[in-house]
Amino acid sequence: MKPDDCSYQIYLNLLKEELIPATGCTEPISVAYAAAMAREVLGVLPDTCTIEASGNIIKNVKSVVVPNTGGLKGIAAAAVAGIVAGDASKKLEVLGAIEEAAKSQIKEYLKAHTVTVLPAHNDIVFFIAATVKKGNDEATVVIEYEHTNIVQIVRNGETQFEKGDGSAEGGGLTDRNSLNVKDILDFADSVRLEDIAEIIERQVTYNCAVSEEGLKHDWGANIGKVLLKAYGNDIRTRARAAAAAGSDARMSGCEKPVVIVSGSGNQGMTASLPVIEYAKALHVSREKLYRALVLSNLTTIYQKAGIGRLSAYCGAVSAGCGAGAGIAYLHGGGYEEIAHTIVNALAITSGIVATAQSLLVRPKSPRRLMPAFLVTTCTRISSNFLAAMVL
């Protein structure tokens, strides 16, 4: 694939759009972003705040720790953190730089002010509306379909910004209809390193830092440490432990940013950390690692294209299959091996249902990777382990 090809630019734009930093679990951060923007539009610290959210948002925010709040959980905490100390210009890093004094202010605001959380009465899977009031002044910010996709801003009944239906539903993102495994592999093989080095190196640096934090310190359920202690230090266990430790730290309030994929930090870590661990074990070049991560990330994005940001289908399954594709690539696999790895891994794991962002998610993270590891090995050593279809 050549740099002046249309597909080349589409795939490169997808990586730039999707592989972005986020501090904390992305659903509460999206709530914080909406609330911070509403406060900015209002112009003063509000007396009241109302958050309307779709069911998937409520589910995913309910039990996860909001970063830089001293351990607070839930929609009200996320909204108040955004109102009191958030920087709306940072989007998914809106809570990335909160000082100690502000953490106390967040707790004080929660005690002294009313924060109302309501279910949204519409069919939009991803919906957040943050309304803040001070005296007779009121501001509302609405996010739909994607974590930072603001579709409407209203102040005192006057619409200051509104997206049309088409751009609102797509979130303004690059079209995914051209994605397919053969072209993704072609792009991974041919992309100029200077075009992707900064994007991929940031993913490696950020996600490894969060994973190491989860392995070294006491975060959440300590799944990564448990895996290493219970099952030893082989490469499969190390790869699973790396992803699990990152998930534990991130969802327990770790303030370090991660590079997300398809709007999810857990998917971002699942798609990258196992590939990075295998690259270390196989002693491959940095270039080979970069190309394998390009393949893993785009394969994850491809699978998620028809599912959407939030669904009952566990999105990290897609990331686990993406990681399997990346690992197959590190082993020298071509199109046939990579396609069979994806299809067979999906056949094994596709029934996993998404749960709330909580302790339940963390042990599921390494489970999503085991079928990918098994399929990658079987495809390499046995010509009989082939899928009935090729992507």
UniProtKB/TrEMBL annotation:
Residues 136-353 form the Serine dehydratase-like alpha subunit domain. The keyword RNA-binding does not apply. InterPro entries: Ser_deHydtase-like_asu (IPR005130), UPF0597 (IPR021144). Pfam families: SDH_alpha. The keyword Membrane applies. Keywords: Membrane, Transmembrane, Transmembrane helix. It comes from the Bacteria. GO terms for biological process: L-cysteine catabolic process to pyruvate. GO terms for molecular function: L-cysteine desulfhydrase activity. The chain crosses the membrane at residues 310-330, 342-361. This is Inner membrane protein. It comes from Sporolactobacillus inulinus.
